[in-house]
Automatic annotation (TrEMBL):
Residues 648-871 form the Endoplasmic reticulum metallopeptidase 1-like C-terminal domain. It comes from the Eukaryota. Belongs to the peptidase M28 family. Residues 151-345 form the Peptidase M28 domain. Its cofactor is Zn(2+). Its main location: endoplasmic reticulum. The gene is Dyak\GE12046. SUPFAM superfamilies: Zn-dependent exopeptidases. The keyword Metal-binding applies. This is FXNA-like protease. PANTHER family: ENDOPLASMIC RETICULUM METALLOPEPTIDASE 1, METALLOPEPTIDASE M28 FAMILY MEMBER.
Length: 873
């Protein structure tokens, strides 16, 4: 200690001694505060721990195996990658296209027959079936109708098997327009091929037959999975599904749904997977609808009553559904990771005794989570509820005992100390609120001034924008409180501050547990690692010896810091790209800001409060404020804060090249106009394009048209476009948009029923492979029956939406509509019928191509010609 730092003590430094600062001449009761660099060292140490240990574990992938390892009966990433190159070379695979219905199907059948040529014929039977599916179902408030959708299905059966219960392994081979679908879902397709190759060519036995389904229409409203589970000959025997999908490319795959209500499936995952990546928190977030994605798993559960595991690629979602979803962003090691897990899961599940009688197994929800990818912890939700309450109660009890001990050792009345602690508790409640509110305030401010998504391409900005304000809010109230006169030593005051934070977290744990969220486990285990050192310190004398109690606390806090930072970093990595397709009506910064703040509170909540032990703790607060201010400046005033980058972090710009024609009741045309219908996907909307001087002169919102016309009078593509229709924008053009054909609706017959008040219209529709039919009866007319699903009429109100698509079979659609009208006057207009035809396999005319080429390279246009015809009958 230098001369300027010396303190003159009027007693030896022991418990409760009085000290005073020579500089300030101010007496206070307590221990010496630590040197100024201690506070900064705390922040630096934990930051380096995250960078050096947590992030590498998050991105860790196994060593990929080559054909030289084939004799070991393991997944060979080299072979899977070779298949993936061929898969990508086919190009886009939109339902109804040559790429999807012919080239990809031929590729799959060729590979499957090569595999069949090398199976262990004395052990297994392998059957290959090409299904053409026809059907319909209700989802997203519309009828999903499909015709000639193709599924490639393989059944692998042990010759000695008598089991009638099959496991289903599913992925899909179709794509979104413009995307070669290498990651979504080619990665999973080739993984299935390789797993089938390994299992069928090895002599490892299994009990239950395995169905490998590679379906041809997932991107098209999940139609192919419904076609299989509702109509395929093997579907009725399928009991458990492993569903494989993607919302990213090139990393570890996340198991984000299990069951529902069968905990033994998590046990299967624990036994079968080699590289764990899973959490209950992901399951609950996905099931809230926060994630703008759907999977076939929902179809299998809803329409097939299956149980199982839902697994998906989730890292680097920036390339998802874009032309950049290519093999160059998928390392071979990522294929090895998926393959190791899938092979282990299929082998474990196909030998599971639980599959012999599923109804005999215990039911209920499960809490599960991986620890840095190294280990998987799981226990039942019932156990979790009890554990949550027990840990919260233990926290409160131990805090109470600690408060009594502090009173005893300080020779202060216990009631006075308890009163002090109540004040501390209020301070920490304020701190917790500030820790959440300050990041949200930053998020609101950035969005208000047009700077949302500034972290989209620069995730390190999240530290300054949201982590620093959160830590500042968490620390500032206690910093102010500790400046006040107190009756106990400074070390004990700091201890009470940490107790106050623990009490707030315990109360939060009780509340969330009561609400029924299984994600409460995150708070519970955070408290566990505060309770352990607190109990140890109370049992020993460390509790009463100055700052000695902080030693074991800091050591034990390594565990919750690493886990919580790993967990919340995981969700930031997954959800940040999704914010680029979350719509213009939601401020995504509030979601990311809240998530980041919670991660900071749970990871650093107990640790950041220790900076108060330093004589210069205010410097840390000033540093947090300075970093936050600098980050806001960078986000709002420099190119670093611009969200988009070419290829790696693109803005999605979906739009339709539209020609719309309105026919009146007498057949005359009242409107025939063309333009572009934009459906911007993120909060910044059209602003970046305008700032990049893209010529969008005349662009208007659709508010008036949506109020005036059925479905805004536009060829809305699917349910997502319908949900966002009021936020779409219209750019008119003078020249008619070219389409390779026009939808042709023919009225075949109009029959007035002899009895009753019903009229029947029969139609034939010749249209492209993606078409929607909109039906709006007049106010005094009701639709009593039709050739589509009858159940839809009882559960939905007009306008009715039928989403129709076909794969290999382009036969024109025939349908009828029966309407009721009480006065039986059927000579007047009764209903409107709109036909929304999507021509997704062509680029468009020259004028449209010029517009597409004017889109900056930081954005990707996803567009095609579409035609809308509205009729009145």
């Amino acid at each position: 200690m230098g001369d300027k730092d010396k303190l003159i003590l009027d007693e030896p430094v022991e418990e409760g001694v009085r000290t005073y600062s020579k500089k300030h001449g101010k007496k206070h009761k307590g221990y010496l505060q630590l040197p100024w660099y201690f506070a900064g060292g705390i922040v630096l140490f934990w930051g380096l721990l995250f960078i050096a240990v947590v992030k590498p574990l998050f991105y860790r992938l196994p060593e990929p195996l080559t054909v030289e390892d084939a004799s070991k009966g393991v997944f060979i990433a080299e072979r899977a990658q070779a298949n993936l190159y061929d898969f990508e070379a086919i190009g886009t695979k939109v339902v109804g296209s040559d790429g999807n219905e012919h080239k990809t199907v031929q590729f799959l059948l060729k590979e499957l027959n090569l595999i069949k040529d090398n199976i262990q014929e004395d052990l297994f039977d392998m059957e290959i079936d090409l299904q053409h599916a026809y059907g319909a179902y209700v989802k997203w408030n519309l009828v999903n109708m499909y015709q000639g959708i193709q599924n490639v299905v393989v059944k692998l059966t042990p010759k000695a098997s008598t089991s009638e219960n099959y496991i289903l392994v599913n992925s899909h081979f179709d794509s979104q327009p413009t995307s070669p679908s290498t990651g979504d879902d080619g990665h999973m397709v080739v993984s299935i091929l390789e797993v089938l190759r390994v299992i069928s060519s090895s002599r490892v036995p299994f009990e239950h037959p395995i169905i490998f389904l590679i379906n041809g229409s997932e991107e098209n409203s999940l139609q192919a999975s419904h076609g299989f589970i509702a109509y395929h000959k093997w579907a009725k025997n399928c009991k458990v599904v492993i569903n494989l999908d993607a919302a990213g490319s090139g990393g570890r795959e996340l198991m984000f749904q299990s069951g529902p209500n069968y905990p033994w499936l998590v046990k299967i995952y624990k036994e079968g997977a080699k590289h764990y990546f899973s959490t209950t928190m992901a399951e609950e977030i996905f099931q809230t609808g926060l994630v703008p994605s759907y999977t076939d798993f929902d179809i299998f559960v809803e329409y097939g009553n299956l149980i199982g595991l839902d697994i998906g690629q989730c890292i680097n979602g920036f390339v998802y559904h874009t032309k950049y979803d290519r093999i160059d962003v998928i390392p071979r090691a990522a294929l090895q990771n998926t393959g190791d897990n899938l092979l282990g899961l299929v082998r474990t599940l196909s030998n599971a005794t639980e599959l012999r009688d599923i109804s005999a197994n215990p039911t209920g929800n499960t809490i599960f989570f991986d620890v840095l990818g190294l280990y998987l912890i799981s226990y039942s939700a019932d156990v979790g509820v009890k554990l949550n309450y027990a840990v919260a109660a233990a926290t409160i009890v131990l805090i109470y005992l600690s408060v009594l001990r502090i009173a005893e050792k300080s020779n202060v009345d216990s009631e006075q100390i308890q009163g002090n602690f109540i004040l501390v508790l209020v301070v920490q409640i304020i701190a917790f609120v500030l820790a959440l509110a300050l990041p949200l305030l930053v998020a609101y401010g950035l969005d208000k001034y047009g700077f949302s998504l500034s972290y989209f391409a620069t995730p390190s900005l999240l530290v300054g924008l949201y982590v620093c304000p959160s830590l500042l809010g968490l620390t500032l109230p206690s910093y102010i409180y500790l400046k006040l006169k107190n009756t106990v030593s400074f070390a004990q005051q700091v201890q009470l501050i940490l107790h106050g934070h623990a009490a707030v977290v315990a109360i939060l744990c009780i509340a969330i547990n009561y609400y029924g969220l299984r994600t409460t486990y995150v708070i519970t285990w955070t408290l566990v690692f505060y309770v352990i050192p607190l109990a140890f310190n109370l049992i020993t004398t460390l509790h009463d010896r100055g700052y000695s109690w902080t030693g074991i606390l800091k050591v034990i806090q390594v565990a919750p810091f690493m886990y919580n930072s790993y967990l919340f970093y995981c969700f930031i990595v997954i959800l940040t790209p999704m914010m680029g397709r979350f719509g213009v009506d939601t401020n995504p910064d509030l979601i990311i800001g809240a998530l980041t703040a919670l991660g900071a509170i749970l990871s650093m909540g107990f640790l950041i409060l220790l900076v108060n032990m330093s004589r210069r703790s205010g410097l840390v607060l000033f540093g947090l404020l300075a970093v936050a201010a600098a980050s806001v400046y960078i986000a709002s005033s420099t190119d670093i804060g611009f969200p988009y980058r070419p290829k790696t972090n693109v803005q999605r710009v979906p739009y339709l090249q539209v020609r719309r024609v309105f026919y009146e009741y007498d057949g005359t045309v009242s409107k025939d106009e063309s333009g572009y219908l934009f459906n911007f996907q993120d909060r910044r909307g059209v602003t970046p394009l305008l700032e990049s001087n893209v010529d969008l002169t005349g662009l208007v919102n659709m508010t008036s048209d949506c109020a005036k016309y059925m479905m805004c009078g536009m060829p809305l593509y699917d349910h997502r476009w319908v949900e966002a229709m009021e936020y779409t924008m219209w750019l008119p053009r003078k020249n008619p948009v070219w389409t390779p054909a026009e939808p042709i609706l023919t009225l075949l017959n109009k029959t007035v029923q002899a009895e009753g008040n019903t009229v029947r219209f029969e139609f034939e529709l010749q249209s492209p492979d993606h078409t929607s039919i909109f039906i709006q009866p007049n106010e005094d007319v009701t639709v009593s029956s039709w050739s589509f699903l009858a159940e839809y009429l009882t559960t939905n109100s007009p306008p009715y939406h039928i989403y129709y698509s076909f794969g290999i079979d382009d036969t024109p659609l025939r349908f009828y509509i029966e309407l009721k009208k009480s006065n039986r006057d059927f000579t007047v207009p009764l209903f409107q019928l709109g036909v929304s035809a999507q021509y997704m396999h062509v680029d468009g005319d020259e004028e449209s191509i010029i517009l597409a080429n004017s889109i900056p390279d930081y954005a990707v246009s996803i567009q095609w010609p579409a035609m809308y015809k509205k009729y009145i009958f």
